[in-house]
Amino acid sequence: MENLPRRVVLIGPSGSGKSEVAGRLAAALGYRAIDTDAMVEDRAGMPVFEFFARFGEPAFRAIETEMLREACSSSGTVIATGGGIVLKPENWTAFRPESAVIALTAAPETLASRIERQLCEGRTQAVRPLLAGDPVARLRQLVALRGPLYAQADCVVETDDLSADEVQESVLRYLRQQAGSGTIPRYSLPTAIERSDIYIGHGISTEAARLARRRWPRAQRVWLVTDENVMPHWGRSIGQVFEVGGFSVNQLIVPAGESSKSFERVEHLCGEMTSGGVTRRDLVVALGGGVVGDLAGFVASVCLRGLSLIQMPTSLLAMVDSSVGGKTAINTGAGKNQVGAFYQPGLVLIDPNFLHTLPAEELESGMAEVIKHSVIQPTTPLGGSSLAHLLESLPSLRSIPAETLTEALSLNVGIKYSVVLADERESGLRMILNFGHTAGQAIEADGYRYRHGEAVALGMLVASRIALHLERVDGRWVERLEQLLSAAGLPTRFEGKAASVLDLMSHDKKNIDGSLHWILPAPDGGVESVTGVDTDMVRLALLDVGAA
Question: Can you give the residue range of the structural domain that contains 329?
Fold first, then answer.
């Protein structure tokens, strides 16, 4: 089969048949079968039940997580996991990227009967310390506790009346159906509040209700936030997707543009929701570009002290940047994004089909973040320069060929994912994502004459000019960046006043102890955080890009 996931991970309770099915499935796929319990026993030099007795469950969970990471470090594998591996959010991240997570389940009575049969056959792996006493009663408790987590798998197979061959065929049938469809999460971000599963694929938006139901089984209502530009194109159809999926839908339409990112709009939306009887089980869906994503995300973070959130970005900029990572914000009179919260969406559904109705200027605006990621990639945990090579190979950046669009989106999301995974709260590494934003956000806030991406493009040029004056890069580096931005249809000359931009930068949230943190190109590739850049040098850089 083509377009198979890199690995298949089997989760589920003891007795569900994970180890046996893993072997059969691996043989059918030409993959290698791995059992995390067997890995633990090899590493510890003793059976799992003995390890439990000597060191306790916390120590077992720790070594189990270590073995899972090791198992997931290679492709072409089918991994059978322990029943409790789903309890730790970081294990879900280890499953990804590009893995199919399959849950095998059965009734507690069926599970207990299978475990008893395995014990009679002398299989020590069937000895389960957590099932001591009354196995059926304990299995009922464990299934009740872990069942909602098993339900979050990409596919759930009830195995009560199925042979191992029939279970294998069910999984193979699912993999055939889903291959290349994008309905397996590409990435998963674990956080203390919410695991963020990121899906990328043409048509993934039509799966929104099914994925939401799988993630939040008790949810009944959706608050769909969109703007006046997106509503005519996608608001009705996405609303119908949720309605057909069994949700009631309340649509909240806001004016398009930065003016909607305000306290007044937040108060209005929260008021609409509370007067409409919003509950903690409801879902907020952000259907739109960066403004809608920021606004709806912030509303979700504060309404009833937190509602589950789905990001469905409709612009290129939002797809490659703002929908991923959990940053939400609104604007104040002092500047852009001055009030906000880190609040992870449970689901991010990136559907390239949305781009068909995106105005050309918005597509060009989004290319600024794509180019930004190509510059910072060598500094990220992902490393390399694959995105830069992709951009350089394209005949035109104004319209990415359809066959490479999903690849470009996946590369961009992967770059940001790797950074956020290492530093969710922007305490260190995540600051490199601000390349172009220190000056760019001030340029944008200076009358909002430039779109966000256009302002970031100009901000990158300002940063590159500062780096040139500091002899961190040479003129050819700056010229290459200008050529990339121009090829994407982005501005390379700023029509504004340096004094206004400098004043706005003095209020920037990146201003720490009176000193701005600049992300500048590094001499050996990638970027670095630099402080202490003289104001006169910043003014000179602004003049270099056309400021008056």
Answer: 187-358
